[in-house]
């Protein structure tokens, strides 16, 4: 689907937020004769169509299947929790019990956010890739504070990261310090402007003199790179705000002409803030950035970790599981938008 088609599909869709779990979550369920993923999901999540998170939480216990296929009686399934539900008996690995620590920067919903199912689509893809990787390692999840960069703090694998252009001036230090994974997901970067405002009338390419807000800590490479020196040549005024919400508020108040956000983050925040019809993305996208995971080069097994992760990502793609995960999360995002 084109970027324009994606935008229109996301903004046009609307449904109620999925119901919270009706049965205990964060616990183990023993499959009974005749059970399917859909029936178990209906019992615990309130909707049989929400079986995908259940499947990806139990990859090691299940063969490739669909939601309607019967599961072998006696199989033990871990029941993940939807947002807002308290686990009955959470399984938390302590630092000494896990092989590696996965650090995820919070607040990037729907891609990486502890309040989204599976920790967000990007997190679900990464965790699923680790689960099917050769010689998989156990891991504990550590959420970095919302707004923090994924390259901040200790951990074996950091996510999400937009890898810099290693040929660009100033990027060598970062590239020398980190291994970057194969692509996990592609992000269309958009300008979100007031509907009916001046910038909405002329489009994203009429940029001279505009005030563009970007959340603190978010990279600005797409605003100042070869062929687009908007910042260094003084073509725009770069504004910083504490969060994506703050940038969107500045747009509504007229303090900024646009907020520079990725398509999915911007769409989710617009829905959460009730700004549908007041703020919208402009075509064409500023750029398409590739979301990756990163491993410190100083990690004694960094090369092996990246190899395993990349192999897991390839297995997800080859099996079709990646498309299933993306479709499930896109459906959930569309339900929150209008």
TrEMBL record:
Keywords attached to this entry: Signal
Signal peptide (residue range): 1-21
LysM domain segment(s): 27-79
InterPro entries the UniProt entry points to: LysM (IPR018392), LysM_dom_sf (IPR036779)
Domain of life: Bacteria
Protein's UniProt name: ABC transporter substrate-binding protein
Lineage, highest ranks first: Bacteria, Pseudomonadati, Pseudomonadota, Alphaproteobacteria, Rhodobacterales
């Amino acid at each position: 689907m084109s970027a324009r088609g994606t935008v229109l599909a996301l903004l046009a869709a609307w449904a109620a937020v999925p119901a919270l779990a009706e049965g205990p979550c964060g616990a183990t369920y023993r499959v009974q004769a005749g059970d399917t993923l859909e029936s178990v999901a209906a019992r615990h999540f309130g909707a049989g169509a929400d079986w995908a998170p259940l499947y990806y939480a139990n990859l090691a216990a299940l063969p490739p299947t669909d939601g309607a296929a019967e599961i072998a009686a006696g199989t033990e399934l871990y029941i993940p929790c939807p947002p807002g539900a308290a686990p009955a008996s959470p399984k938390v690995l302590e630092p000494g019990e896990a092989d590696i620590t996965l650090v995820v920067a919070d607040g990037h919903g729907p891609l990486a956010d502890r309040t989204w199912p599976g920790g967000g689509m990007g997190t679900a893809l990464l965790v699923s890739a680790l689960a099917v990787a050769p010689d998989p390692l156990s891991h504990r999840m550590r959420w970095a504070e919302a707004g923090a960069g994924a390259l901040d703090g200790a951990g074996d694998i950091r996510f999400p990261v937009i890898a810099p252009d290693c040929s660009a001036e100033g990027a060598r230090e970062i590239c020398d310090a980190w291994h970057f994974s194969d692509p996990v997901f592609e992000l269309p970067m958009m300008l979100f402007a007031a509907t009916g405002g001046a910038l909405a009338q002329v489009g994203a390419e009429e940029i001279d003199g505009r005030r563009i807000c970007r959340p603190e800590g978010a990279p600005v490479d797409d605003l100042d790179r070869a062929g687009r020196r908007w910042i260094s040549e003084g073509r725009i005024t770069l504004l910083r705000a504490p969060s994506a919400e703050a940038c969107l508020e500045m747009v509504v108040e007229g303090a900024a002409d646009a907020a520079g956000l990725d398509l999915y983050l911007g769409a989710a925040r617009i829905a959460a803030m009730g700004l549908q019809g007041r703020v919208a993305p402009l075509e064409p996208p500023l750029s398409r950035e590739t979301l990756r995971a990163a491993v410190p080069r100083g990690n004694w097994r960094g090369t092996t970790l990246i190899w395993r992760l990349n192999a897991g990502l390839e297995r997800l793609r080859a099996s079709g599981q990646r498309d299933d995960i993306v479709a499930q999360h896109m459906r959930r995002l569309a339900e929150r938008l209008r």
